[in-house]
Design brief:
With 123 residues, the chain is of the alpha+beta class. It contains two helices and five strands. β2 and β3 form a beta hairpin. The structure holds guanosine-5'-monophosphate (5GP) and zinc ion. Guanosine-5'-monophosphate binds next to β2.
Length: 123
Amino acid sequence: MSDIQHSDPDCIFCKLVSGKIPAKKVYEDEEIFAFHDINPWAPVHFLLIPKLHIPSMAQVGPEHAGLLGRMMALAPRLAQQEGCRPYPQGGFRLVCNTGGDGGQEVHHLHIHVIGGPRPWLKG
Ligand code: 5GP
Ligand code: ZN
């Protein structure tokens, strides 16, 4: 059994999921939420998160394989929907910062989906 709590009342991304803080929504289903990053580094920059409060990739176990697989499988469709140009000239970058050394600032698992014509502010 996972000891991950469904929602953390102090977590900013849980507040976005519940609507307590407004977000520019890109996608939502029963288990996944996607929204524009508040501080984009590229023409397309949104975050794909599980609704479940998983702090980071470090807490992911085999029980999350289906959920993470569905998030990864959704990324290309949402990237195209949000304006990433087609592969191979276009494409996008997926980034999942984990922990302090990984540069993670918000401790609710998220995948950055970044794309659009360069130059970008970072990366
Ligand atoms: P990390 O460094 O943890 O991988 O990235 C966290 C990301 O969340 C940053 O790119 C930051 O701009 C974004 N972010 C932080 N707070 C908010 C917020 O309240 N709303 C939105 N839309 N994005 C946020
Ligand atoms: Zn959370």
